[in-house]
TrEMBL record:
Transmembrane segments: none annotated. Pfam families: TetR_N. SUPFAM superfamilies: Homeodomain-like (SSF46689). The lineage of its organism: Bacteria, Bacillati, Actinomycetota, Actinomycetes, Streptosporangiales. This is Transcriptional regulator, TetR family.
Length: 305
């Protein structure tokens, strides 16, 4: 992964600058991955890149900017993966969750770096070019979500308001931001972040479609639109390929031909880990019967209005 373009026909000085920036980028990426943001120093990065410390500051004004430079590329890769996954999703909720889920998976690999990156995106220096590049990636994500929401409204014969869809997309990113911070802050321990995020996305999408439906004479209720009987939303979470069927009476989670039915509103459990509890169960294809995590189906406080 790199932030640089191929050298092309630039002069020796330009090629030298590109080479230094590439070495600094790689040294920063490796150092942050191995030791975490707080324990890494700019001097360490400079030594690893085989440049003077002052040279590092010619390309990034601070250690935080170095992290932005590195994690912008991580975010770009996550968004590309999410966009690719979403193309194969028919349900609008599972498509939107698929767009943001790679960000959650990425954050789980190094919670500290992900939390610092989110902080710098939100509160970093306004003139930081790497922050601006990161915010442009967030805007791209929100546009992708907006397009999917508008397409879903049109498919249902509802007025497709792009401004309202963009507001909903911003709410999805805000909910995702809070989930990304969980692993580092320790908030909401004992609850499944993926299940919570999925529930929040469903509420946001339901709200957008409800508003669109209210603007159409004789529009149907959001409940009937979001929970058609027998229609499933497929969600890929980690290595688990799941189908979540929301119907009035039950929430059914399927893997292959196996099903576990729960009362409506009950938690589906950990979408990544709790379908199979042990290697033996994984080998035999058995479905666990562990109870749902307390409150796992409830969305993040303050993000559902």
């Amino acid at each position: 992964m790199t932030v640089m373009q191929p050298p092309g026909r630039g002069g020796r000085r330009e090629r030298g600058m590109r080479d230094k920036q590439e070495r600094i980028f790689r040294a920063a990426a490796d150092s942050f991955a191995e030791r975490g943001f707080e324990r890494v120093t700019t001097q360490e990065i400079a030594e690893r890149a085989d440049v003077a410390t002052g040279t590092v500051f010619r390309y990034a004004a601070s250690k935080a900017e170095l992290l932005l430079m590195v994690y912008n590329e991580e975010l770009r890769a996550a968004l590309e993966l999410g966009e690719q996954r979403a193309r194969s999703r028919q349900g609008v909720v599972s498509a939107v969750v698929s767009m943001v889920l790679p960000m959650v998976e990425q954050a789980e690999r190094h919670a500290e770096n992900a939390a610092v990156y989110q902080r710098e995106l939100l509160f970093g220096a306004p003139d930081d070019k790497y922050r601006a590049a990161g915010l442009a990636l967030v805007a791209r994500l929100e546009q992708l979500i907006t397009e999917r929401l508008v397409a879903e409204a049109a498919r249902r014969g509802l007025p497709a308001d792009r401004d309202h869809a963009l507001l909903a997309a911003g709410s999805v990113f805000a909910a995702t931001h809070l989930v990304l911070a969980r692993a580092y802050t320790g908030a909401h321990q004992g609850r499944d972040p993926v299940a919570d995020l999925s529930a929040q996305v469903r509420q946001i999408v339901s709200g957008y479609l409800a508003v669109a439906g209210a603007r159409r004479p004789g529009g149907s209720s959001p409940e009937s639109q979001m929970s058609p009987r027998g229609r499933g939303d497929r969600l890929e979470a980690g290595n688990a390929d799941l189908v979540i069927e929301a119907v009035p009476e039950v929430l059914t989670v399927k893997r292959g031909d196996l099903r576990e039915a729960r009362p409506a509103g009950a938690a589906a459990g950990d979408l990544r880990d709790r379908l199979v509890d042990s290697p033996a169960q994984r080998h035999e294809g058995l479905h666990p019967t562990a109870p749902p995590l307390p409150g796992a189906a409830h969305p993040e406080p303050g993000m559902t209005s």
